[in-house]
Amino acid sequence: MEHKDDVKYAAEIMPGGTPLPAGWKVVAKEPFAVSGPCPSCFGNAYGPLIKDFDDGEPDRELTREIYAECSCGFSHGGDGATSCGRSWIVTLQSPDAETRVNDG
Ligand SMILES: [Zn+2]
Ligand SMILES: [Zn+2]
Question: Secondary structure of 14-69 in the HEC alphabet?
């Protein structure tokens, strides 16, 4: 997927449910992290775990919310910026929560 250089820099949180481009995957377990293409500019993006809703009930679905942000390395016209500025929440639910990111 080609990086979109013409996306204008904007420090904004994208709305919940923003579809993720294909290619997102779990890249670390401890601490948990995901990585994949930015939904705005298709550059590399990364997200550490922020919330884990496993309450210990064996039958309950595990839900994870990861705060991800673009880290593509391009300025996108922003002063001193190193990404397009976008961030968003990635939500994973079991069984995918452990190993795989839904491609939206
Ligand atoms: Zn981006
Ligand atoms: Zn970018």
Answer: CCCCCCCCCCCEEEEECCEEEEEECCCCCCEEEEEEEEECCCCCCCCCCEEEEEEE
Counting ligands in written order, the one closest to the CA of 87 is 1
Q: Which ligand is nearest to the CA of 11?
A: 1
State which amino acid sits at residue 31.
P
Q: Tens of pLDDT along the chain (104 residues)?
A: 799 999 999 999 998 778 889 888 888 888 888 999 999 999 999 998 777 776 666 666 778 888 999 999 999 999 999 999 999 988 887 766 766 776 54
Determine if the pTM surpasses 0.85.
Answer: no
**For ligand 2, a single-atom ion, which residues have Cβ within 5 Å?**
41, 43, 72, 74, 84
Domain boundaries, given as residue ranges, for the chain: 25-99
Q: Which ligand sits nearest to residue 69's alpha carbon?
A: 1
Least distant ligand from the CA of 5: 2
